[in-house]
Structure formats: C-alpha cells, structure tokens
Specification:
two-stranded antiparallel sheet; about 10% strand; about 55% helix; elongated; mainly alpha; single chain
C-alpha cells in the first residue's frame, strides 16, 4: 500500500484512494505531464546557464547578444504544441551560439 500524509499524519491509503492513485500513475496524460516536466527541467537549466547574457556588462557584441536572445526565445518556446509524449521525445534542442 502507498502511504499518504494528511494533516501531518502518515497512513496507508484506503483501497479507494489507492485505486485512484494507481489510475493517475498510468494514464497517458500523466505520462505526458511527466515528460513535459522533465523537458522543462532541462530547458530551465539551459536558460539558467545563459542568464549572464542579460547582464548590462556582458562582454558581447550586438550581433552575439541577438544570437543568444534568439536561442533563449527558442528555449522558452520549446514546449509550444507538445501534446503527446512522442512529440516531447522528438524535441530538437536549439544550438547554443
């Protein structure tokens, strides 16, 4: 049985709670949500790695700054239109400038 915490009390799930939990674990929607969550985690890491380009004193030419901004926009938009796990798995990451 799976444990559940309610009001700081941990207990086993009831049969009904367990059945509802089990359904959530295997639905295509939950698989899609998990895939999107994993993708967003990777995307957010890549965005954080290049946050420095937004600093006023970033040592970049105008054209390089534009390249980095385009890259960051592509990263932010990467989840657009992803409505199946297969589409998430087929994502092509943009190339860093």
């Amino acid at each position: 049985m799976t444990k559940i915490q309610i009001n700081n009390t941990v207990r086993d799930m009831t049969a009904e709670e367990q059945a509802a939990y089990d359904v959530e674990q295997v639905t295509p929607l939950s698989a899609l949500n998990q895939s999107l969550s994993d993708l967003r985690e990777d995307r957010n890491r890549l965005l954080q790695e290049c946050d420095w380009i937004e600093l006023n004193n970033a040592p970049l030419t105008s054209s390089k700054k534009t390249e980095w901004q385009t890259y960051r926009t592509k990263l932010r938009d990467i989840t657009n239109g992803l409505d199946t796990v297969d589409k998430v798995k087929a994502v092509t990451w943009p190339t860093k400038p």
